[in-house]
Amino acid sequence: RMPRASPTEMTPNQLARQIGTPDCPALIDLRIDADFDADPVFIPGARRHAAADIVDLVPALTVRRAILYCHKGLKISQGAAAILRCEGVQAETLEGGMVSWRDAALPTVTAAALPVAQTSGGTLWVPRARPKIDRIACPWLLRRFVDPMARFLFVAPSQVDLVAERFGATAFDMPDGAWSHRGAFCTFDTMLAEFGLKVPALDRLAEIVRGADTDRHDLAPEAAGLLAVSLGLSRMYRDDLQQLEAGMGLYDALYRWARDAQDEGHDWPAAKG
To answer: Are the C-beta atoms of residues 47 and 68 closer than 8 Å to each other?
Structure first.
């Protein structure tokens, strides 16, 4: 284990290992407008908040630890984190702030690609009902790397665009839509490109999703397995949101395999230890 910079700080590499996992802390971007405008990207999964109003986040953080960062990880994030700790929140700061994250060449999300958040705080997306692959993989990507508060309205295909317009949401995985297939690439690929997410494990996962979603199992041997499990999940759940919750665990496992276990095999009989 790498040593902590201090008991209340986390290094960029330590935080990077938690990005994309179910246990990732809430990430709060406290940069002032000038610093954000000069570098309009987020650490994956982060959301902006004004340091002066940090106590407004206390109710949402009572059951979830938080990592706060500003431009250089100094007075703004350290002061705001100290205030949260006074309110009983488990809060830490990112050592060196956004500058150190950038210097370490760690992944970011292009802020301009994010739809406007709802008054509830999260983005709202509309896919077709009865999801199989892309419409589970994309919500997983959004919640784990873009917006943990993202919500999804599964509706009849004929109503996707109308619902999106009526409720100020973003339609995705619809033919001819902005957030959809592009040539040989699926919607998962489109989201990676639009958000500027450059993560080797996500690139590997994208090959599997693309192969399963476009019937190109030659792209990755795991694609056939993903198709089989996805079709099985679609028959286990009548409720699309329940299916999504089950699918989150599936993609969590695939991501961790792509990140940490691609070189590991399994055979029988097991090697003697």
So the answer is: no
Over residues 199-224, the pLDDT tens digits come to: 999 999 999 999 999 999 999 999 99
Instruction: Write out pLDDT tens, residues 77-128.
Output: 999 999 999 999 999 999 999 999 999 999 999 999 999 888 677 999 999 9
Residue 255 tokens, joined: 């991501």
CB 209 within 8 A of CB 134: yes
Q: Indicate the residue type of 170.
A: T
pTM across the whole model: 0.95
Alpha-carbon torsion (246, 252, 253, 254), positive or negative: positive
Closest Cα to residue 176, out of 197, 190, 195, 196? 190
Per-residue tokens: 158: 């004929």
